[in-house]
Amino acid sequence: MELINEFDVSVPIDTAWAVLTDVERIAPCLPGAQLQEIEGEEYRGIVKVKVGPITAQYKGRATFLEMDATAHRLVLDAAGRDTRGAGNASAIITAQLTSSGSGTHVTVTTDLTVTGKVAQFGRGVLADVSAKILTQFVDNLEQTVLIDDVLSIANDVVDDAAQRGADVLAEAAMVVEDAVEAIKETAADAVAAAGAAISEVKASPVVRRIDQPEPEAIDLLGSAGTPVLKRAVPVLGVAVAALIVWRLLRRRR
């Protein structure tokens, strides 16, 4: 099934892009999700879903199929399996960012496939749940990650101004050409060494464990509300009727 959701964030498009493509930073903002480890370009973790008294846990992975910084478009391939073997879920998620005044508008298209307990709710309920989960995700972003980014930008401006002043003073104090050349050579050696170290790390990806708090399960009944209750009432009616008949038969015996 295809689900389409939209939301806005109050930061410029380049800032929003940098945030939304940083999986490690935004994972704690997604309800029910916990990022556990990263290996190369693959992200692994769990998503907890609650349906009344039943809690299902999906363990899976996600990788970027496309990440176009120029067009501000990304495509994510995600898949997970119920740890109890009661079903699985997979999705191709496409996000398109566009400038909207001083902020950013994001359109998310999800091609979702689910089996097991969650699938019984149908497209209408899942669409309602996904919209509410996305709203909570954006609220969490605005209150944590995006605030940090705005403060970081302000600090960078201050630091840059301070650095410029320091550079002017340093240049005024430089009176010996040999000292300048020595500093340049040292910096070049450091950059070369850092580049070699980065290349070596990229050539041999390792699994990196992520320390994030245990997520609270997504409550599908709480998120879906009335649509789920309407579907549950007939089932409960049948169950009550069966119980009454059973008790009458016992009394006749």
Automatic annotation (TrEMBL):
Gene3D superfamilies: 3.30.530.20
Family annotation (Pfam families): COXG
The keyword Cell division belongs to this UniProt entry's keyword annotation: no
Residue intervals passing through the bilayer: 232-249
InterPro entries: CO_DH_gsu, START-like_dom_sf
Keywords: Membrane, Transmembrane, Transmembrane helix
Protein name: Unannotated protein
